[in-house]
Specification:
The structure holds 2 protein chains of 2 kinds. Chain A has helices at residues 2-7, 23-33, 56-63, 80-87, 134-151, 156-182, 197-202, 221-234, 248-257, 277-287, and strands at 16-20, 37-41, 67-70, 99-101, 188-191, 206-210, 238-241, 260-263. By secondary structure, chain A is an alpha/beta fold. Chain A folds into 2 domains: 2-105 and 122-173, 3-Layer(aba) Sandwich (Rossmann fold); 183-287, Rossmann fold (3-Layer(aba) Sandwich). Chain A has a 4-stranded parallel β-sheet with strand order 2-1-3-4, covered by helices on one side. In chain A, helix 8 crosses helix 9. Mean pLDDT of chain A is 93; it is low at 8-12. Chain B is elongated, with a radius of gyration of 32 Å. The model of chain B has no long low-confidence stretch (mean pLDDT 89). Chain B has 2 domains: 1-55; 68-447, Porin (Beta Barrel), CATH 2.40.160. Chain B has a 16-stranded antiparallel beta barrel with strand order 1-6-7-8-9-10-11-12-13-14-15-16-17-19-20-21. In chain B, strands 2-3 form a two-stranded antiparallel ribbon. Chain B has helices at residues 2-56, 83-87, 193-199, and strands at residues 67-79, 90-91, 95-96, 101-104, 107-110, 117-132, 135-144, 147-157, 164-172, 205-214, 220-228, 257-268, 271-288, 295-313, 319-339, 342-366, 371-387, 390-391, 398-410, 413-426, 432-447. The longest helix of chain B is centred in the first third of the chain and has 55 residues, at 2-56. By secondary structure, chain B is mainly beta. Classes of the chains: A alpha/beta, B mainly beta. The interface between A and B is large, with 44 and 44 residues.
Chain lengths: 289, 454
């Protein structure tokens, strides 16, 4: 019986069936889409967004979707293209109007001056982790509202209404977070991979080093020694560590310098208590004690 | 009195402060307006600049450059037998010269890691781009010291919808699990024994057309059918053998190879199970006229495949994967024994039926982003060769054992140390040979970022 249910076409259940790459996009799309939209999230929130397992079940999810929303900025380059190719769904093709690349709506930072893999696994378009600035969430919510209104114009009033509700709520939250982060201005931090670039920019937090010597290149002993020296000199508050890289090197650095390690979520589901967009930023804004 | 004075002083200072703040706020708003105006100006200038840019290179087409990547595969091989010796060994009843290089007319065929010492297995040049809103095109060229080979060159539909996808051109068939994977995506430096013995180094790699349909279900379910030219030299073929006026055996009508398969997959938490059933049927014209004991085969062949992959992910980088494939082939036809002095003369004919089957099964542990290790067991366990009703009693315990450890400096550079023990090859005196091989392989990629498929 359960198997039969599994075989039923998904389109029977919802108005619009939108596949999204990451959980935060799912939550945002659900907030704007409301009951008209069924959201299918492709990636796990607790794993490295660069390395998503292209499970065959994801092909079916893309195949059955009425549209696809991705983060962009090459974050999905290692896993999404073959899924789109194999799904053979015109609605999820890159140039379809039902395809939304969120990075097109954000002016990305840290765009490398010169692009060469000798500098690690660089993103030529800039740092793609723009979802961690709460101000960007508003821009993305607007982009998703516009997108849903275009592909489902008869319900555009619903999306407009949901957007207003969401943005009012979110603006209040931003004020709260701004207040909370005011005292953290100028604080120095260390990360494993620079996923907090946008968050740090928003709250004037200074990232002085990453544990990985270059983007995507695992820690080397020389770089670790240099980082320890830098930490001793600059006295950053803490290592804000993502949940998916091993904390082994961070622990070693902590042992040598006494610096605190704080696990930080990069998306919904990264940590157990991070269940929605609000709790994601509640957590992030409480990370620096 | 004093108290009053104090209070009023405090109050006035507060008031003063308030008006100060008011003034500051007004100042700030003014500044804000100025900044905004300046920003507008900058933006206008930037837009103007953007419009200027195309005038410089009006006919510049560099943005239409396809994605290009180049993959180089090198290896250093140390084998317990000399190259000349290895080239003459055979898997009896199955294939001649499995390891090493051998010449077939003007063409030199060599498997990966064929020679002792250094091997340049290939430089693979891959180009990929969309053609228009309806197609993409991919081309993969294998460049070797012996020449230029079109490994794949095909167009794929992107706009059919309903889960349908059509591919046309030269491509690797999606038969089984490993068949469609390129060498650099394999877990080992060489092909499993059963694959290479039955189908040769490139497996089913043909010119033709493919239709695939993914069912509209939440469970992954895919059906595929392929019509292929059928020129696989080891098992299929449709060419006339011998001279055209008095051929040894006449060719058959092409296309002559038909492939069908069904694949499905389920996830249980972080474990993914992928299984498939495959079938291929086609005419066979196998030309062994250039070999020491010349012969030719004409008939029909079927190939059956079952594959199962179970992969569990511990985190983003660490996994355990168990992958197995079973292949069974049934070849039915006539074997022509040729005169070594004049290969156009048939000295004997016999009905020949080959029923052969084998398995490879491998376990890989991805330790972290950099390291992985794997072991593999290969066997051809069924080798029934019946010639004119007489069982030839060919050996049927043909085994291979492999182990490897792999280190990646990044996603783009992979170094692998592999050990093989081959107990499937026999010499001319029908004596089983045991061959040990150590392969150090380097696989390096530049250019476009290759995405991984499951």
């Amino acid at each position: 019986m359960r198997f039969l249910l599994l075989l039923l076409p998904l389109s029977l259940f919802a108005n619009l069936n939108i596949a999204v790459s990451y959980p935060y996009i799912g939550a945002l799309t659900k907030s704007i889409g409301g009951e008209n939209v069924e959201v299918v999230v492709l990636a796990n929130g607790n794993w490295d967004p660069h390395f998503v397992v292209p499970k065959p079940s994801l092909i079916s999810k893309v195949r059955n979707a009425d549209g696809l929303i991705m983060n962009g900025g090459e974050l999905e380059i290692g896993w999404l293209p073959p899924l789109i190719k194999k799904a053979g769904n015109p609605k999820t093709n890159v140039n379809a109007k039902t395809f939304l690349n969120l990075s097109n709506h954000i002016s990305m930072i840290d765009k490398p001056q010169s692009v060469s893999r000798s500098g690690g696994d660089l993103h030529p378009e800039g740092n793609p982790h723009f979802n961690l600035d709460p101000n960007n969430i508003l821009i993305l919510a607007n982009a998703i509202k516009e997108y849903l209104s275009t592909i489902d114009s008869k319900n555009s009033h619903v999306y407009e209404k949901n957007y207003v509700i969401f943005s009012d709520m979110w603006k209040k939250k931003i004020e709260l977070w701004n207040e909370k982060m005011l005292s953290k201005k100028g604080v120095k931090v260390v990360q494993f991979h620079n996923i907090l670039a946008y968050f740090n920019k928003a709250y004037k937090i200074e990232n002085i080093a990453t544990i990985e010597p270059l983007p995507g290149i695992p820690p080397s002993s020389k770089h670790t020694v240099d980082t320890i020296e830098l930490i001793k000199k600059e006295q950053p508050c803490c290592i804000l560590h993502d949940v998916y890289h091993s904390t082994k090197t961070a622990e070693f650095i902590s042992e040598k310098t006494g610096i605190k390690i704080v696990l930080i979520p990069h998306d919904i589901g990264a940590l157990e208590s991070v269940e929605d967009l609000t709790s994601l930023f509640d957590y992030l804004t409480s990370a620096i004690k | 009195m004093k108290k009053q004075l104090c209070l009023s002083l405090v109050a006035s200072s507060f008031l003063l402060a308030d008006t100060d703040i008011e003034q500051l706020k007004i100042e700030m708003n003014k500044q804000q307006l100025i900044i905004e105006k300046l920003q507008e100006k900058i933006e206008k200038l930037a837009v103007a600049k953007k419009f200027e840019a195309p005038q410089i290179e009006t006919f510049d087409q560099s943005k239409f450059m396809p994605d290009i990547s180049l993959i180089l595969d090198l290896s250093y091989v140390s084998r317990s037998k000399k190259d000349d010796e290895v080239a003459h060994l055979e898997v009896p009843g199955v294939v001649h010269g499995l390891l090493g290089s051998h010449s077939d007319g003007d063409v030199t065929h060599s498997t990966y890691n064929a020679s002792n010492g250094f091997n340049l297995n290939y430089a693979e040049l891959a180009l990929s781009s969309s053609v228009d809103p309806y197609f993409t095109m991919d081309a993969i060229f294998h460049l070797s010291e012996h020449g230029f080979e079109i490994e794949e060159a095909f167009v794929t539909s992107t706009a059919l919808g309903h889960g349908l996808r059509v591919k046309g051109g030269k491509f690797l068939s999606n038969f089984g699990y490993l068949n469609e994977k390129h060498h650099h995506a394999w877990s080992f430096s060489d092909m499993p024994l059963v694959y290479e013995s039955f189908l040769g180094l490139h497996a089913i790699n043909e010119i033709g057309a493919q239709l695939q349909w993914t069912a509209p279900t939440s469970t992954y379910l895919m059906f595929g059918a392929e019509v292929l030219q059928g020129e696989n030299e080891q098992m299929f073929g449709n060419n006339t053998i011998g001279n055209t006026e008095t051929p040894i055996t006449k060719g058959s009508q092409a296309p002559s190879l038909f492939v069908g398969y069904i694949k499905s997959s389920i996830d249980i938490d972080d474990t993914t199970i992928l299984g498939g059933l495959s079938y291929a049927n086609g005419s066979s014209r196998v030309d062994h006229s250039q070999e020491e004991a010349p012969s030719a085969f004409s008939g029909d062949s079927s190939l059956y495949g079952v594959d199962l992959t179970i992969k569990h992910y511990f985190d983003s980088y660490s996994f355990l994967s168990w992958q197995s494939e079973w292949l069974m082939r049934d070849m039915d036809g006539i074997e022509y024994t040729l005169d070594p002095a004049d290969i156009s003369v048939v000295t004997a004919t016999a009905n020949l039926r080959k029923k052969q089957a084998g398995i490879y099964t491998q376990l890989e542990y991805g330790i972290n982003k950099n390291f992985s290790a794997a072991i593999r067991y290969d066997t051809i366990y069924k080798n029934d060769v019946v010639e004119s009703g007489v069982n030839m009693n060919e050996p049927d315990s043909l085994n291979g054992y492999s182990a490897m450890i792999e280190y990646k400096t990044s996603e783009f550079a992979k170094f692998r140390l592999q050990y093989n023990r081959n107990e499937a090859l026999y010499n001319e005196d029908a004596i089983k040979q045991k061959i040990d091989t150590i392969i150090f392989q380097a696989n390096i990629a530049i250019g476009a970022h290759g995405a991984h498929s499951f």
